[in-house]
Amino acid sequence: MKNQSLKLLLLLSGCLLPMYSFARDTENWIKPLSHVNSGDTAFILICSVLVLLMTVPGIALFYGGMSRKKNVLNTMMMSFSAACTTCVLWVILGYSLAFTPNNAVIGGLDRIFLLGMNLDLQKQTTSFYGGDSTVPEAAFMFFQMTFIIISTAIMTGSFVGRMKFSATIVLTALWSMLVYVPICHWVWGGGFMSHHGVMDFAGGTVVHITAGVSGLITALFIGKRMGYGKVPMTPHNMVLTLIGAAFLWLGWFGFNAGSAGAANASAAMAAAVTQVSSASGALSWLLCEKIAKQKPSALGLASGAVAGLVGITPAAGFVGIPAALLIGLLTAAAAYFSSVILKRKLGYDDSLDAFGIHGFGGIVGSILTGLLFSNEIFGGNATVFKQVFIQIADGGVAIVYSVLMTLILLFITRFICGGLRVSEEDEYRGLDLSQHGEKVE
């Protein structure tokens, strides 16, 4: 244990020291509190709580119901632990590197440990809101914290049932700071993707593509579950999954509408298209099951609804209702293809389809955003051909970076934890008992 603690301390020191810099003058990116709008502030705080509900209990129940009974507590604990770990890291370093000005690759250390943040300040400019903010900086920081929390929780769905809990904690902690935070800065924090004009209203690239792709790479790296493809691995409690999907659907209004940054017309449209796309996605998945001559399933209904939500996430502030119908329909169909047909054909073990729904769905949703955006809605003058190219190019950069960095972090985590995977005996007994000494009766 001492050796592992020493390894972790040395690793964190090695990561932090190269990034150290003196605090910078912040007068160009904050302004007095007198400009704050109380209605907008209340709206963002409510949206922040809604997004937090997406992880606990949303993702925890959604994933927990889909896992095998012997792993349900471990599965839910991965979501809860992600919420705790990334919250602390966001305060210490993540927010500062993601959203304080520095350069096109990474932010500065003006807000390390949230130093300097007080009641008198708010963001002056941010590419996330596309201009001046009307909410206190603390509200903006809290809203963004919920995004990194759910991103790490989403990723864990790909490798449920076979990774050490200690390795999960270490990997998600490193991933949140070294994968999520840089990409967040590139897209929303004034980085190079925001300069290119990429459209990602609420996290199609930042959240879903990065988490889904990294989850798949982790699943491939550690290998399939014992008996995968030979013994049934059906969800143990679809009631929990449906309840979790309901929390996700509800919380997603905070996810998308809150990304408008204010209680305004853009937020209203984002909420409307979110509802429409999710409903369209749920029906699309059921239609795919019908075409495949399967019975309409509760799992399919829940998966389709979430896929529709994933698809509309990058587009929520850029499209209207007809486009939302099409995005939900196509994204859910693509997610069905990836989660059911492609996974079966290629034989990889993406345990709870985190890549199929979030990764693949995020890629499709991002491209559809470039195809279906409306200049009248978001007030721009982009062209379809150029925007599609930007969406594909910047999405490709995020995918390549996520793959390479996740592989590096997996080797580091394996070194720190003395391995990534539980023993065959522990996996057979179930991770609830072997990792936590508890079980569901």
Which structural class should the secondary elements be placed in?
mainly alpha
Percent range for β-strand residues: under 5%
For the record, the CATH class is Mainly Alpha
Mean of residue pLDDT values: 90
State the separation between the terminal residues, measured CA to CA.
Answer: 32 Å
Percent helix = 55-70%
- Architecture in CATH? Orthogonal Bundle
CATH superfamily: Ammonium transporter AmtB like domains
Radius of gyration: 21 Å
Major beta-sheet overview: 2 strands, antiparallel
- CATH fold-level assignment: Ammonium transporter fold
H/E topology pattern = HEHHEHHHHHHHHHHHHH
Placed side by side, the strands forming the largest sheet appear as: 1-2
Extract low-pLDDT stretches. Answer: 12-27
Please give the number of β-strands. Answer: 2
Number of helices: 16
Coarse shape: globular
**Total of domains:** 1
Question: Could you please describe the fold and organization of this structure?
Answer:
This protein is an all-alpha fold. The chain has a single domain, classed as Ammonium transporter fold, CATH 1.10.3430.10. Helix content is 67%, strand content 1%.
